[in-house]
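Hi R.,

Here's the chain you asked about this morning:
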Amino acid sequence: MNDDGNPCMSCGACCARFRVSFYWAEADDGAGRVPAALTEPLTPFLRCMAGSNDRPPRCRALLGQIGCSVSCAIYASRPSPCREFRMSGEGGLANAACDRARAHYGLPPLARPAAQ
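And here is the predicted structure, written out as tokens:
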């Protein structure tokens, strides 16, 4: 990510709270874009981001300190679950998973846009 105004740039909680699993062909050895070297097999058809299936989870593509300053080493090539995950409040919609991940790291929920 390169948007300094984006709260995700100082969070990263979702990348260190959930397993990121996806169809195997999203990896670059299956015609996708996710670097296969940063994935681990789950089943014959599913992979996950390396580190995200550990206890505690932390995606190995996550750089930086959670809650301070973070970035994704493969942001342009990230898998579909990462592309689809929305920060809470984006588009005026809450994301309970974002809120749970932030709470786990002692971070407050993101501000919601005011109702119109």
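One quick note: The first helix runs from residue 80 to 84.

Cheers,
M.
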